[in-house]
Specification:
This protein has about 290 residues and is of the alpha/beta class. About 45% of the residues lie in helices and about 20% in strands. The chain is built from 11 helices and 12 strands. The strands form 3 sheets. Strands 1-12-9-8-5-4-3-2 form an 8-stranded parallel β-sheet. The longest helix is centred in the last third of the chain and has 22 residues, at about 270-290. About 50% of the residues are buried. Bound molecules: zinc ion (ZN). Zinc ion binds near residues 197 and 264. GO terms for molecular function: methyltransferase activity; zinc ion binding. InterPro entries: BHMT-like, HCY_dom, HCY_dom_sf. This is 5-methyltetrahydrofolate--homocysteine methyltransferase.
């Protein structure tokens, strides 16, 4: 996969959690790996059919802080096995590792390595192709997840933090500024670094420009959310519709972002748009070369 990224933009899938929560009343969508694996598998297939090169396991919140009284290793392993079932040739599975919800100042934070270990070992043993540490807002937690992934697996690792624009520039929701966060991500030596979720495609495109100005060697992943949702008639409505994201996706492509996908609120329809625009770039590059 890393070899492929040198010459190709890979399209990632969109949201897993928000899509599954449309179909189920489970508080934690990860539980569906055990209760209704066919629902999760169908979502992976929908994303593959939409043109995703990368599918992401339903394991974002599979950790002992968010989900109690369940074997987290088995839950995470199941998420990887479901993705493997859905996967076809030339596609890749990223094992999702989200934040635990603990703050570095919490007493329980001292257990963080053990918590991530259960999840990451499950993903590894279930057969993922890479570990995706995503939506991180604390540098300390991101580093802990990375440390565990590097020690417990031989897989490539992507680290992605979640930023929003403040009057002091881009910061994570935990208050870490962009430059410090990127420096920490680069220092780790992760194969892929980037940003996900945030405040929708427009703001994430501005962020991607900043990342490109700081990062030169490492592959970059960008997965924007579909914006901040409004609740209308008990439904969450996201402002960034598939029709509205084209110009931002075009910009992400022209910036040289290596992996483009979506986060909360994005759907297979958003991924179809990204696929089409990435293919269009490949076509025009070919025409140029002839
Ligand atoms: Zn998100």
């Amino acid at each position: 996969m890393l070899e492929l990224l040198k010459s190709k933009i890979l399209v990632s899938d969109g949201a897993i959690g928000t899509e599954l929560l449309k179909l189920s009343s489970e508080k934690n969508p990860e539980i569906l790996n055990l209760k209704k694996p066919s629902l999760v598998e169908k979502l992976h297939i929908d994303y593959i059919n939409a043109g995703a090169d990368i599918i992401t396991t339903n394991s974002f919140g599979a950790n002992p802080v968010r989900i109690k009284d369940i074997n987290i290793y088995e839950l995470a392993k199941a998420s990887a096995q479901i993705a493997r079932k859905a996967k076809i040739d030339n596609k890749f599975i990223f094992g999702s590792v989200g934040p635990t919800g603990l703050k570095p100042t919490d007493k329980e934070f001292k257990n963080i390595d053990a918590y991530f270990s259960e999840q990451i070992c499950g993903l590894n043993d279930g057969g993922v192709d890479a570990i995706l540490i995503e939506t991180m807002i604390f540098v300390e937690e991101m580093k802990a997840a990375y440390r565990v992934a590097r020690t417990e697996t031989k897989l490539p690792i992507a680290v992605s933090m979640s930023f929003h624009l403040t009057k002091n520039g881009f910061q994570t929701y935990g208050g870490a500024d962009l430059k410090t966060s990127v420096k920490e991500m680069l220092n780790l030596g992760a194969e892929i670094i980037g940003a996900n979720c945030g405040n929708g495609f427009a703001e994430m495109t501005t962020l991607a420009e900043k990342l490109k100005s700081i990062i030169s060697e490492t592959f970059i992943i960008i997965k924007p959310s579909a914006g901040t949702p409004k609740r209308i008639n008990d439904k969450l409505i996201y402002p960034d519709t598939p029709n509205s994201i084209s110009k931002f996706v075009e910009k992400l492509i022209s910036l040289g972002v290596n992996i483009i996908g979506g986060c909360c609120g994005t759907t297979p329809e958003h991924i179809k748009v990204i696929r089409k625009l990435v293919d269009k770039t490949i076509q025009s590059e070919k025409a140029w070369a002839q």
